[in-house]
Amino acid sequence: MEANAHPQPRYILIWGILLVLTLAEVxxxxxxxxxxxxxxxxxAMAVWKALMVALYYMHLRYEPRxxxxxxxxxxxxxxILVVAVLTEF
Amino acid sequence: xxxxxxxxxxxxxxxxxxxxxxxxxxxxxFIRKYIFSTDHKTIGKQFLFLSLFFLVVGxxxxxxxxWQLGFPGQPLPGGGVLPDTMAPGGIIxxxxxxxxxxxxxxxxxxxAIMPLLVGVFGNLLIPLQIGxxxxxFPKLNMMSFWLAVPAGAVMLASFFVEGGAAGAGWTSxxxxxxSGEWTGVYLGxxxxxxxxxxxxxxxxxxxxxxxxxxINMRAPGMTWFRxxxxxxxxxxxxxxxxxxxxxLTGGLIMLLFDQTIGTTxxxxxxxxxxxxWQHVFWFFGHPExxxxxxxxxxIVSEVLACRARKPIFGYHAMxxxxxxxAFLGWIVWGHHMFQSGMNPMLGTTFMISTxxxxxxxxxxxxxxxxxxxxxxxxxxxxMLHALSFVSMFIIGGLSGIFMASAPxxxxxxxxxxxxxxxxxxxxxxxxxxxxxxxxxxxxxxxGRMMGEGLGKIxxxxxxxxxxxxxxxxxxxxVQGMMRRIYDPNEYEFLxxxxxxxxxxxxxxxxxxxxxxxxxxxxxxxxxxxxRAPANPWNSNxxxxxxxxxPAHGNFAVMPTVYRGPYEYSSPEVDADFYPQDQPPPxxxxxxxxASGPExxxxx
Amino acid sequence: xxxxxxxxxxVSTYGPAIDQMYYIILVITGVVFFLTEGLLIAFLxxxxxxxxxxxxxxxxxxxxxxxxxxxxxxxxxxxxxxSKSSWDLVKNPANFPxxxxxxxxxxxxYEWNVTYAGADGRIGTADDFTSRxxxxxxxxxxxxxxxxSEDVIHSFFLPDFRLKQDAxxxxxxxxxxxxxxxxxxxxxxxxxxxxxxxxxxxxxxxxTDADFQSWAASRAxxxxx
Amino acid sequence: xxxxATAVMDNRHPMPGMQVYNLKLxxxxxxxxxxxxxxxxxxxxxxxxxxxPEHWTQPGVILNVPLTAVNTFLLICSSVTxxxxxxxxxxxxxKGLKLWxxxxxxIGASFVGIQVVEYTKxxxxxxxxxxxxxxxxxxxxxxATFYLMTGFHGAHVTIGVLCLIFVLFRAMKGAYTAExxxxxxxxxxxxxxxxxxxxxxxxxxxxx
Lengths: 89, 603, 225, 208
Ligand code: HEA
Ligand code: HEA
Ligand code: CUA
Ligand SMILES: [Cu+2]
What we know:
The structure holds four protein chains of four kinds.
Chain A: H1 2-5, H2 11-29, H3 35-57, H4 65-72, H5 74-86
Chain C: H1 15-46, H2 62-91, E1 101-108, E2 111-116, E3 129-132, E4 134-138, E5 142-149, E6 154-158, E7 163-167, E8 173-178, E9 183-189, E10 202-207, H3 209-224
Parallel strand pairs in C: 1-5, 4-10
Antiparallel strand pairs in C: 1-2, 2-3, 5-8, 6-7, 6-9, 9-10
Chain D: H1 3-9, H2 22-51, H3 65-90, H4 94-124, H5 140-172, H6 182-207
Bound molecules: heme-A (2 copies), dinuclear copper ion and copper (II) ion.
One heme-A binds at residues 52, 55-56, 59, 62, 65-66, 101-102, 104-105, 108-109, 113, 169-170, 419, 422-423, 426-427, 430-431, 469, 483-484, 508, 511-512, 515, 518-519, 522 of chain B.
């Protein structure tokens, strides 16, 4: 069974990273920086955390390449919808 | 993989795959067999009866609409039975007319055509054509059907609640649809939303099942480019459903909240955005229309190749074209919103992407023609329906090009030109494809042949009356007649069109009457039809290698696939067909062999 | 019965351009239609089943695929590009003709209310005057219509001018037209807006400049009392 | 890869397909549709917020960031416990499986609990989804989108907890082994996905 095959990631370490990032986010959010700078920084950290969860906790990192493609497939659609509609405002 | 490998891989454990009929038949209670069945073939039949019922309902609603349009303000014969809230004294009320239009569109799209294509043929064909014993998740499959039933019940119930059924069009544009204060419809609109949310879950569970099954459960040798086109089309359709339906569900939920708990996502009075609803709806809506045509295209490709006894022309091109449609389908939704006040720059972009999507359809059309070229064409009922699909889809598609041009759409938007387009693609396309599919696979479903003579008569009359109904709608559109209007005669410039509207309505009544032939043929053949051989059409695909109807578990042993699905008139064999599982000369035994052409019914 | 595919007469300046676009597409699609359906019928006759006939064992042709991919692509692309100009002309405020007569059209279930600028030439001032289900304009003068809606979405449809634009509540959307001859024309609602949608209609009166001035004057009069 | 495992988990066919057993593939495919569902909600939020920025306030003015930070912490922990349960059964450690599952259930439940508390407080302060009743700072779109997104996420957590309880029951019955743990793995996938969604929501709803 493929799960047995893969090396066990250091779950606790990742847990630590997630916590640190969460605290970092909260701290960063209340600095008085221009909104755009805040947004970019926060979203970057959120994406980082999301990737951590997907890659290690959901074991995407140890799945066959075609699973990565499968998992990523809806993201372009999400972007298309939001970006297109935003041009209205 | 090479056939040698395949054969060796077939020795031993693989032959006794769990689930295959070879495992031995276990008999089960009536309930488990016919009502809460997990057999994909039974579920397919359940969907067939459910969606044919809704097709009749949708047709009846259309009949009522056409009565009003053909004979405005005149009492409907026998319309007295309708309650006064709908048609006092048989005279259809404007608000009831709006409900008719809305429910006709909704029921036809979500409860007739979609389940007919996806629910019926998806269930029936996918496991059989890829050589699997059943779907990946049979229980989930059963759930998919048993979600569709309550959804349909709720939709029908909405006719009989206070204020009547939803009346804001099948597109339910906000803010009209957000409050009964605009339409007089309160509960009905909410039931409409609830019903579609449930139906969404039904489609979703189906889609998850189909995708998993096609990816993971193909028989040995069934490589991606040996998959028959109906299964290919259903696989791509399932992906569209998987990604499009949740978007609609999200929108429906927001709309439901706007109506019930006082949110204002789409209500400008609370600084909501009406256009947001349109974007969400059409981002789902355009993929949806391809959901409604792709499986029909697959079915037609199968029938054309089989009845022309010729390999499908450009198999790879056919598959790639469908994939291209599936991709492009996501970036054209704005063509429904050209006149909606959308940013005109965006309009230009959508105009360009929209015309581009005509290209893959062009590829398919020309490949169908290429398949007929130098064929040996047998005119059986399924073939006749498939051929009329091709010819009618061309008309429907070409009318789409007019509206794809934004300035021309400025005139045609929301006129009967659109209505003509809709019906040429959805009736002339999808429904003729469905007729082709039902008549083609009827023997596999019920173990009996459908009456050919009656079938041909039904086809002929349907084809004529259908064109008498919908072709003139183009001319109505050219004259500028708006859609969704209760009585065109309100407009001076539309009065001269009454004659044509009456002509259309009379043709509709003929068209609907003709369908009784089909109904009769359908039920009569089910019980009295000639017993069907395993492979009445001398077809190549796996479903025809097992008895009609196939046993629970489909295949006695897991079949092995040696070639593509459309090896007709191959020089390798004397017969003009070459089943996918027939071992090539020299390779070990096991699969079926084409023992000369069996008599083809009717031909 | 009128089976014609000819559009009715158009009375706006850009109408002919749009009609021309329609006729171009009509010709192209017409040709494609007769070509494809013709081939279909020809094949059905020529290759119908005969005893002893065996179909040709052909799997396709890359050359053919390329041809019938590129040809339609070029055709439809040119249709789109040819359509772009008149689209931008009518719907893109950046390209609107200057010194237009401004009117505000407010749609509501189920009527069209038009507001004209008074003597001061500006809308939103005391001397504005209005008309209900009637849009009065001078001939050969650019008129900018600023569309609003009070309740639901309606659609401002002038068939003879080839103009259609939704009126969306909470938004003001501008379109323009210029009439090329005097007369009375239809103003219709093309977006389902409730049970009265089918009777939400008005009339466009295109006057000579003089007539329009006198009408405006008298209408303004009535409004004052 | 060891063959007996997949043999138990499903009837794998000689065509390799996704090289992943049916249950797991099915769950992944289902999660894709979940992505699109949240796209429609989050997308609408982004669009409405761009259209009407005035409806939103500075972070922390209305929403209780510290409390939700704690909640985020809880959810992240529950992901670890979940993955621990999975590792346990992979090694055939029944006891570990049950303990870690129980831990996940408890943490998940407390997340929902805290969210309920948060909601009641906010509603009390007039921060409601409805236009007519909205009484807090900012505008009603703020409230509406907030409850829409966090509400549907909360619903997903609740469903997850229920499924986990079901899985725990089956674990009690010893339904899972080192060879056959499909059920544990897919509920894990779902659980981590819900966690992932929260990570996004926490940032865009509470901190932006
Ligand atoms: C099965 C469903 C289906 C299909 C397949 C299509 C296919 C297409 N549709 Fe259609 N459409 C609908 C169902 C469908 N549509 C529905 C239901 C509506 C109304 C919704 C509502 O408002 O209620 C609608 C509305 C609609 C609109 C909005 C009109 C309006 O409201 O103002 C537009 C505009 O661009 C459009 C365009 C197209 C185009 C370009 C195609 C193309 O995919 C067609 C491509 C096919 C061909 C072009 C023919 C074959 C090709 C050849 C023969 C090759 C040569 C061709 C050329 C060189 C041109 N459709
Ligand atoms: C899949 C789609 C589908 C189908 C098949 C039809 C079929 C028909 N439609 Fe439909 N129509 C729509 C989809 C469809 N329609 C949509 C989406 C709209 C837009 C709605 C809106 O504006 O919101 C619309 C709108 C629409 C209008 C415009 C209304 C308006 O704008 O005011 C009209 C007007 O004539 C019309 C007429 C008809 C007619 C006469 C038929 C006839 O073809 C019906 C003939 C009867 C049948 C097809 C049933 C036959 C039954 C069987 C074959 C089964 C029998 C067998 C057994 C029981 C075993 N339709
Ligand atoms: Cu106003 Cu229709
Ligand atoms: Cu479309």
